[in-house]
Design brief:
Oligomer: single chain
Helix content: 25-40%
Largest sheet: 9 strands, mixed
Number of domains: 3
Strand order of the largest sheet: 16-17-19-18-22-23-26-27-28
CATH class of the largest domain: Alpha Beta
Distance between the termini: 69 Å
Mean pLDDT: 91
Length: 537
């Protein structure tokens, strides 16, 4: 139960009841009285009952006075005893309460804000629900600033609660209600950003943003299949979920990402998870590694395997705890994003958006690396992937080369241990694949401690050296030699970015694939700007 701090006070009336209600006998007398000679008010409200004045003493019927003060009266004729006790009542709200902004109208319950002394909230299995209460006029608001900042609802979805209202006069009103579900997705013609909370029971521990496009390009895309576009947040290192949510929202509001621009111009809904990038570094077995969740690096993808080794598991538990996250929340991160895609498709189609079951994956830099790897791990959920600034670190559909086992994320030598199934080149090639980078891109991921662990770095530098462009060209050649399909482009004269010509080709690539039953690979209109290598059947 939580007490409320308020300003102002209700009018108070001193009620004097002469005699002892519990007396066992009495005396009959003839007296002169004044009937209805005064008005009794309780908390500013007049009590509708006859009253008497006797020798300057006020008398009112006990039952009516008690009722006005939220009390009930019982009479025991055997002992001639009247008992007064706090009145308790119960009722249930017919309409569901919004779990993201829960508000209860007290006036509809016959209660005024100034009558409420304390409030409690309970649910099945929990007699105390830790939320804040605020009274605004006769509206009761339930809030949880931390939950809102982290993309969680204030109250659980589709859950029964009991609100307990304790009055200043000792009464209690129990109000039962059920919370609603996710917000209605109602097209307005304007671009909308909706935050969907985590749902561990449906496979994901982090919130995601769903962006509904405006109608600015609706007519131009009429008659075509509609796909969800998925990108991954790349907001930098942070152990704070609230910070990650805020940065991700700000990134989407700026509309500068190629994925956001493509989603708007293709009239496609867009999904972006708000997954944090906690700073977690560990040393084990003589090697040092750092997690890079936003790139689905080896540490992230193999976390479930590392936790099977007791010594390493204990070390990781400690490192995760220090970072303020749980191991379970980042376990199988690829599957969590796949579950978000499935959830978003169902959520959108429940509201008539008509999107396909598969998705378009679009990313750049770290998120480009993430979507390239996600498409390899979950090909059945991906229609097409556009991975930017990823030509020098794309995953090869190859298990061994030059006497080295190509472990994830270099190749597929340990794919089965990570994915739970054997690598299937045919399924891999059913995904339309576009991988590109700027010809002058000098952002060298091999040099970064968080991009690769010591063993991965050794394999890469042994086989292809440290320089970016030679490595990108070598990986492109190996992709085709291994039987992989895709379009691979070096954007001429561009660094760690992309040209407008490259952007227009990305758009044409997705347009060609949205209505195609098999991967489509349109040729660039400007091969001078976009020199390409194509491997296709």
């Amino acid at each position: 139960m939580r007490r409320i701090l308020r300003t102002g006070a209700a009018a108070a009336v001193l009620l004097l009841l002469s005699g002892a209600a519990g007396a066992a006998s009495g005396t009959l007398e003839n007296v002169w009285i004044l009937r209805n000679g005064f008005t009794l008010t309780v908390n500013g409200r007049a009590v509708e009952a006859d009253n008497l004045l006797l020798e300057d003493r006020a008398y009112v019927p006990l039952r009516e006075a008690a009722a006005a003060m939220g009390m009930s009266v019982t009479w025991d004729p055997a002992t001639r005893t009247a008992s007064v006790s706090p009145r308790s009542a119960a009722l249930r709200l017919a309409a569901p309460v919004d779990p993201f902004n829960p508000v209860v109208d007290l006036a509809s319950l016959g209660v005024r804000a100034e009558d409420v002394e304390a409030i409690g909230l309970e649910t099945a299995g929990a007699s105390y629900v830790p939320v804040r209460f605020a009274l605004e006029w006769d509206q009761l608001h339930m809030t949880d600033g931390q939950a809102a900042a982290e993309g969680r609802p204030v109250l659980a979805l589709h859950t029964d609660y009991v609100l307990k209202l304790f009055t200043r006069t000792g009464g209690m009103l129990r109000v039962g209600f059920t919370t609603g579900g996710l917000p209605e997705l109602t097209p307005t013609g304007r671009r909308q950003i909706v935050l969907v909370p985590p749902s561990p029971e449906q496979g994901f521990h982090w919130p995601y943003f769903l962006v509904l496009p405006s109608d600015g390009h609706r007519q131009a895309n009429a008659g075509h299949r509609r796909y969800l576009i998925v990108d991954i947040t790349n907001t930098g290192p942070s152990n704070s979920v609230a910070d990650t949510v805020a940065r991700t929202r700000a990134e989407l509001e700026r509309e500068q990402l190629p994925s956001a621009r493509l989603a708007e111009e293709l009239w496609a809904p867009m999904l972006m998870p708000a997954i944090p990038r906690p700073v977690i570094t560990y040393r084990y077995g003589g090697q040092q590694n750092t997690f890079l969740t936003h790139a689905l690096d080896r540490d992230t993808a193999t976390l479930h395997l590392m936790m099977q080794e007791p010594g390493l598991a204990a070390l990781l538990e400690r490192q995760f705890r220090q970072a303020g996250v749980t191991v379970d929340s980042l376990m199988h991160l690829d599957r969590q994003v796949a579950a978000m895609i499935q959830h978003a498709v169902g959520y959108l189609n429940q509201h008539g958006f008509g999107v396909e079951e598969q998705a378009f994956l679009v990313g750049f830099s770290a998120s480009g690396t993430f979507v390239d790897r996600l498409a390899a791990l979950h090909p059945d959920q991906v229609k097409a992937v556009v991975a930017g600034a990823a030509l020098d670190n794309m995953l090869l559909p190859l298990a061994e080369h030059g006497g080295e086992r190509l472990i994830y994320p270099i190749g597929v030598a340990d794919y089965e241990a990570i994915a739970g199934r054997a690598f299937d080149l045919e399924a891999h090639n059913r995904v339309a694949r576009l991988v590109y980078m700027g010809e002058n891109d000098d952002s060298n991921t091999v040099l970064y401690q968080d991009s690769y662990g010591d063993e991965e770095r050794r394999i890469i530098t042994t086989l292809w050296g440290e320089e970016v462009l030679p490595r990108a060209r070598a990986l492109t050649a190996l992709y085709g030699e291994s039987g992989g399909h895709g379009m691979f482009i070096l954007d001429r004269g561009v660094g760690h970015e992309y040209s407008e010509v490259m952007y227009q080709y990305m758009k044409a690539f997705l347009q060609a694939n949205r209505d195609a039953d098999a991967p489509a690979y349109p040729l660039p209109d400007d091969p001078e700007q976009l020199p390409f290598t194509l491997y296709a059947p």
